UniProtKB/TrEMBL annotation:
Matches recorded under InterPro entries: Myoviridae_GpU, Phage_P2_GpU
The name this protein goes by in its record: Phage tail protein
Any Pfam family the entry gives: Phage_P2_GpU
């Protein structure tokens, strides 16, 4: 299994993709100030998109049926979990686009080669968004205090020895 999207499994016999592109954005706004340089403010996570590109050879791997199943799943309009074959959970995604190019036809009009590109858009919140600057700052401050305390303890122990 290469990846699973809801109930659809990407593998060699369904839709083996050859390329996975991931795009993640974070939103910042610029606040202009009088007689000072502009100040930038982080306003949250932006869009996350995954695109799978590949080539199907129906006589060898996959078929039009796999594309039809995936298209039907997209028509539900529901978000589905997207999980890689190694267990990485990307999150909840909706299928936003499917492009296919059929080529090299046999005498019955069946394509022997189908190039595809599938676009997914994330529609849930990433758990990492809950990390805020203040909580990270508090964490770092706590680590600094513990490090200083440990240093002082070791320093006083060493000075007592000599």
């Amino acid at each position: 299994m290469m990846m699973i999207y809801g109930m659809f499994v990407f593998e060699l016999k369904t839709l083996p993709y050859q390329q996975l592109q991931q795009s993640i954005n974070w939103r910042h706004v610029k606040n202009d100030r009088i007689n000072r340089s502009a100040k930038w403010q982080y306003i949250g996570a932006g869009e996350a998109q995954i695109t799978l590109n590949g080539v199907l050879y129906p006589e060898v791997t996959g078929s039009d049926v796999s594309l039809a199943v995936l298209t039907t799943q997209a028509y539900t309009g529901r978000p589905w979990p997207l999980i890689s074959g190694v267990g990485q959970i990307y999150g909840m995604y909706v299928l936003t686009g499917l492009q296919t190019t059929h080529a090299e036809f046999d005498r019955y009009g069946n394509a022997k080669k189908i190039e595809f590109s599938i676009s997914f858009q994330r529609c849930d919140e990433d758990l990492r968004e809950r990390l805020q600057a203040s909580s990270v700052g508090d964490l770092l401050s706590g680590l600094k205090d513990k490090a200083e305390s440990a240093y002082n303890t070791v320093s006083s122990t060493v000075s007592n020895l000599f």
